[in-house]
Design brief:
Strand order of the largest sheet: 6-5-14-16
Helix content: 40-55%
Radius of gyration: 31 Å
Distance between the termini: 29 Å
Oligomer: single chain
Length: 698
């Protein structure tokens, strides 16, 4: 069986993937006997609504490189795949589908709506996992998990009840981030901040009559959200701000001044607090404890009244009649108009600020008081801190430990309830809320292995070895998995946390499907092949945390595939039907010595790079060795020193090169190996009939 004149990935990839699946070697239980010591990676579960994007492709390539190398090194490797039910995102998708049919979820009712979601999941939920297969991911698909499976649901209920019995879960009315479109609370970590050009309105708050001896007779307050002024219960200044000393009670028992809240006609105090930034606006700010977290702290400290003026639908309540029922945007326009008419608007300045948006639908988030379930975080934060401080869990790069610790140091209790229908129902009688999606995914490293049951998988594969993930979910997910593992398993969930680069556009912008700046890896695979895509992506992983994606590297990967193919064809032509053991030959010429020494150096370098998560460096080393040392130099010299020994060296270097390249470029290397296995290797050496379980070069 000869290699065809040109490498065509479309003729190879599906065929080779079927070979792998048929072999059963993705499943650790079906690996050869030499594979004993377990090595586990659990895939960061993509949303069931998701499609493969370039970030997924990067992360999957990294994990597959690690898994394939360890499998060849004789480890009992498990790469466990699965998907997350993604409460808000999935509900949005199905609601959008219903809207096209002229229906809402309320028309169906909760039970029927959930049936619709399951139908959608069965039809579309495996799409992203099938795309991972196109990339060559060697996951054990027989162990695929979903966060709404019945067994997983039992794990989530067990975790909730465990925390509840310890007294760490409570229900309380607190200010939460509220998406009026999704009609649910969101955690701080589920917000995306968008820079928007707005205004800073400078509003005159008249001093109350007893303060009228002062001049001027009002205090000017600057705000970006005039509609919330209807809920003001104080005006605050910094105690060190000399401009306002005459207006604030500085000594115990001394009465401070008051103002009349414009439009609402309520008398409210002027107070001082160190949380106020004297540099913002006029240095005097409105305090609305019901609609701002800092204001809430100030309100609690000064025992201020809390007046909620925005409801769950984003409409004005508890205000003068003319404003009640208006949407916040409408209320803002009306309030500004009325302030102008009453000569209480001093000026307007343009102001650019960061506006919180719902991470799923992009709606501007409101801060409102709401009755929610919370998980106390004080003890759990300590659990998350300990193994990282002791070095049992290592971050790569190490600098990500600082933001991890900073978040834990300033952690708030976790709002774990959501007011949607798709998700894990809170296991309290009469409770219709569901749990935050991240509550269930925090259990992923052990719930996927059978917990709370004491399964064989749990005993064998926990703790896992490496977690590869993105920096933006270190707090959303990584920290929560760590304290969950420590609390429920009394052991760390993984030993190494590798934070991969964020893939940006060529000019350094965030990729966006909606803006047309995203890159579809499935299209890259279709155009260039999976190996070229994998190698071209990994080639760019050089330690920087922002990776500007260029298609040139994928084209380079394609050319490299052709080079590997052509070099292999040449070697096979030279050795004909002769069989060779994979045993280091004797060097008889200087060229022989040079290539064998270069091969040995490359093996050492690749091992060191992969142990230290230096994927790009490993790619560069492999590329340089194979293209220059082997093809440009030794193959050319072999044409002049034709001999049996030269053929042995050609075969030895090619086979070891294919082994090292396999984790990066699995399809082409396996295809070439299949020809070598069937034709040029002794029966014993090639008995497994798969490169993916050959012994890694030493």
């Amino acid at each position: 069986m000869e290699l065809s004149p040109q490498y065509n990935p479309k003729e190879v990839e599906d065929k080779i993937y079927q070979l792998w699946e048929k072999s059963g070697f993705f499943n650790p239980d079906k690996l050869p006997k030499r594979h004993k010591k377990p090595y586990t990676i659990v895939i960061p579960p993509p949303n069931v609504t998701g499609e493969l994007h370039i970030g997924h492709a990067l992360n999957a390539t990294i994990q597959d490189i690690l898994i394939r190398q360890k499998r060849m090194q004789g480890y009992k490797t498990l790469w466990l795949p699965g998907t997350d039910h993604a409460g808000i995102a999935t509900q949005n998708v199905v609601e959008k589908k219903l809207r096209k049919e002229g229906k809402t979820r309320f028309d169906l009712g909760r039970e029927e709506f959930i049936k619709e979601v399951w139908k959608w999941k069965e039809e579309y939920g495996s799409k992203i996992l099938n795309q991972f297969k196109k990339l060559g991911s060697s996951c054990d698909w027989s162990r695929t998990r979903f966060t709404m499976d019945k067994d997983y649901e039992k794990a989530v209920q067990e975790a909730f009840l465990h925390y509840h019995k310890k007294g760490w879960i409570y229900k309380g009315k607190r200010i939460v981030n509220w998406c009026k479109r999704c009609a649910t609370s969101l955690s701080d970590l589920e917000l995306e901040y968008k820079e928007e050009k707005g205004n800073l309105w400078f509003i005159k708050y008249p001093l109350a009559e007893k303060s009228q001896t002062l001049n001027p007779k009002f205090i000017v307050v600057a705000t970006t959200r005039p509609e919330t002024m209807l809920g003001d219960t104080a005006v605050a200044v910094n105690p060190k701000d000399a401009r306002y000393k005459s207006l604030v009670a500085c000594l115990p028992g001394r009465q401070g001044k008051t103002v009349i809240l414009p439009l609402a006609n309520r008398e409210i105090p002027i107070i001082s607090d160190i949380l106020i930034d004297s540099e913002f606006g006029t240095g005097a700010v409105k305090v609305t404890p019901a609609h701002d977290t800092t204001d809430q702290l100030i309100g609690e400290k000064h025992k201020l009244e809390t007046v909620q003026v925005i409801d769950e639908k984003g409409r004005i309540i508890n205000s003068p009649e003319k404003y009640n029922g208006l949407k916040t945007e409408e209320a803002r326009e009306k309030i500004i108009e009325d302030l102008k008419n009453q000569n209480l608007l001093e000026k307007i300045e343009e102001y650019t600020h960061q506006v919180p948006k719902c991470y799923r639908c992009g709606t501007t988030v409101e801060l409102i008081p709401s009755l929610q379930w919370f998980l106390k975080m004080s003890e759990l934060a300590k659990l998350a801190e300990k193994p990282v401080k002791s070095g049992k869990i290592k971050f790569h790069p190490k600098n990500f430990e600082k933001p991890y610790f900073d978040w834990l140091k300033n952690i708030k209790d976790w709002c774990i309830s959501r007011q949607i229908w798709w998700g894990h129902k809170i296991p309290i009688e009469g409770e219709n809320d569901v749990l935050d999606t991240w509550f269930s995914s925090a259990l992923w490293p052990f719930a996927t292995l059978g917990w709370p049951k004491k399964t064989k998988d749990l005993k064998t594969f926990y703790p896992t070895n490496v977690l590869s993930t993105a920096r933006d979910i270190i707090n959303l997910w990584v920290a929560r998995m760590i304290f969950s593992g420590m609390e429920f398993m009394e052991d760390i969930p993984f030993k190494d946390v590798y934070i991969h680069a964020t893939v940006l556009t060529r000019d350094g912008q965030r990729m966006s499907k909606s803006l047309g700046t995203g890159v579809d890896p499935v299209q890259l695979i279709d155009e260039f092949g999976a190996d070229a895509t994998r190698f071209g992506i990994a080639f760019q992983v050089m330690g920087n945390q922002d990776m500007k994606f260029v298609t040139d590297n994928i084209l380079m990967g394609k050319k490299f595939c052709n080079k590997i193919w052509n070099a292999s064809r040449f070697v096979l032509t030279q050795i004909g039907d002769k069989k060779y053991e994979n045993k280091k030959p004797v060097a008889k010429t200087q060229a022989d010595k040079t290539i064998l020494k270069a091969l040995e150096k490359t093996i050492k370098s690749i091992n060191k790079d992969l142990d230290n998560f230096k994927f790009g460096k490993a790619c560069h080393t492999l590329y340089d060795f194979f293209w220059h040392d082997f093809c440009d130099v030794y193959i050319e010299k072999s044409k002049l020193q034709k001999s049996e020994n030269t053929n042995k060296i050609l075969m030895y270097v090619l086979l070891n090169s294919l082994m090292m390249l396999h984790p990066f470029m699995p399809f082409i290397t396996e295809e070439i190996y299949q020809k070598l296995c069937l034709k040029n290797l002794p029966a014993q050496a090639g008995k497994q009939k798969c490169l993916m379980v050959e012994s890694w070069p030493k």
